[in-house]
Amino acid sequence: MKKLYLFIFSMLFIIQLKAQNIQGRVADNLTNQPVVGAVIVLPNQQKLVTDDNGIFVLKNISSNITITVNSLGYESQQILVKPSNKNLLILLTPTTDNLNKVQVTGWATGKRDNQLTEAQSVGVLTYQDLQRGNGLFPETQMNTIPGVFMQTRGISGGQRIIIRGYGNTTNFNGLGYQVYLNNIPLTDATGVTILDDIDFSTIGRVEVFKGPESSLYGSGIAGVVKLYSIQPKPNTTKFLEENTVGSYGLYRNNTRIESAGSNSVLFFNYGHQTSNGYRNHSASAKDYASFKGDFYVGDQQTISTYLSYSRSYEELAGEIPGDTLYRRITWSDPKYVNNNAHVLIESFRAGITDDIKINTHFTNQTTAYTSGYTLDQPFAAGLNSNAVLTFGGRTGFVYNGKSGSVGIHGIIGGQFEKTLSFNKTYNLTNGVLGGIRTDLQIQAQTYNVFTEWKLNLPANFMLSAGSSVNFIEYSIRDMLTNTANPTHLDQSGYKRFMPVVKPRIAILKMLNKNNSVYVDVSTGYTPPTTSNVVIPAIGKVNYGLQPEMGIQYEVGVKGSLLNNKLSYQLALFQLDVSNKIVNQSVAATQTNPFYTFAVNVGKQRDNGVELSLNYLAVQSNTSFFRSVKPFVTYTYSNFTYVDFKSDNNNNSATLNFSGNKVAGVAPNFLNIGFDVVTAPGIYFNSTFQYVDKVPYTYDNLNYADAYRLLGAKLGFRKTFHQHFDIDAFVGADNLLNNTYYTFLFLSPTLASQTDPHFIPGPYTAMWYGGLKLAYHF
Fold it and tell me: What is the pTM of this model?
């Protein structure tokens, strides 16, 4: 009997040894922030809930079990748990089925809020959205966001983003908005955003905050665009090989390694892309390499790193006149061709982010970064040769707590950025290099402090209020001012703008658990570029120039109907912009030549309506059609110039544009999309886009015609034997063979009937096909 007791005791002891307590952490797959209140369902249907750190504990696990993890706004996930697991990291992917369940990064420190509780209009594109086309060129998908119009000068370069009619005054790179990639600013301290070197095929998410965001992000009346790299699938290691081919010699290859474990998430991608272009002298060649690593230092701290290198070469064929475009003539400007015009950018980017929970109430996120590039750009009448280095940092302390029944969430932080630019220009005629024109060393720096607070009030009201104080300094040194150039006019100068204070206030009311309404008033500013600060022809600093100022009033409603199958967002806004900057001409005199300089001349009022509808017609795990989802987005823009003139001369040559429509903005912009996924793995995506006719001169005497674009993609996606993924697809853009433009240049008037303003799109359909293979370890 003693032996029997000893045997039973030993077996119980062995079983007890095998039974383990396993701690798990549930986090957002994109930001790595903890998912609070996630529900873990055990095999016996017992439920656990994650705490404020996203932590839960499984007790006495002695055999393999499968748990299910659910959270509002995220895709449900099943996880196999083994007794040998010491810790579990469960990364949840934000859902795309319902507009208002989609999570958005409402704070600079990575905190994510449900769209339904965001008191402003935010456009979101997930990885699935970005892959609805060939996955290489983001313009079609970006333009499905109401109020957003992205254009490009080349095959995949020279991008300009117009948000709510703002950002269209530059005919080259982007101005008036801030762009971030994995918390690293792509916008430099001069306010210029270059996207030629961004590998959009590795972007997993886009968020567009429309309208002024100065209370959190500093300058930019148009808004903020936040890009995030693809996040690996949780708890897997995967090797991928992707190849895409298409019309006009398009070829793209990606080789990628992804790994997501309990302590880290790693991502490395090398990509090579080429295209012959659809016009003479419009070829493109790009090489990209990027690494992203997220490292979990305990339950309270995450360190994220990002490194990238790119080489982007885009040939420039030049603008064409409207009559050439609409007669569907394929033509390239000889001045561009003879000078071998192109944009060659070689760049690097590096950043590190430390996200730490200090205690139950305070967290901090700090990012330090640097980037640099060299630019070689021959154009029709010269050559630009630039070397640019940018560095800076951003930090934010977040408070979460309560005062009685009032929930309090606040952030206090600051950002600093400095850009050192060495800019040279030369004469260039028929490819023969001439004398140097300019040699400038530019130092630009911006810095700000900001704060914003959210109060969860009784009766389901939420109040948000914040402000920032912003500083801008420009210093320019003219290196041609030396004894070898005694007649050269010194272009050196220094300008420090007065501090700019920009507040924001918003209030949101939850009507019920599925619907909300909000009112938002936000202010912003856009500083002049360094080229505006100095008047080169007379060698003087433009001291009187001021930043453009904006104030936006927005009213919106968001929600879900028909048992949450139909989700909607409706926003009405008025954006008033003052101190608009234009170039003013000065006639030649006996002592000074003819020249132009920047002046603040007027106001612009943008009134608009934005609508998004998303209907989940079918969602099933058992039927042939697993998902059927049509959607509609529509933008109405009634934008006009108010007290807006060509200059401040107020003479017979001064043109008054007051009352005219804002150039470059289509009154009506419509997208209709349709997505289908079937049980065998066949899927289909299609988008129809209508862009209304639009004036391209401030005097409204010249219009670009309306156009219609239809794109479609048919594919097959399947996982075999739990280890192999395959995604094969074919598709086409411009299936209607419509005449359209990819970039529209703006000017006050049409200088002559042959004045070019258009970068044409392909006149016929562009086909593509691809194969993606992946192996899961």
Answer: 0.91
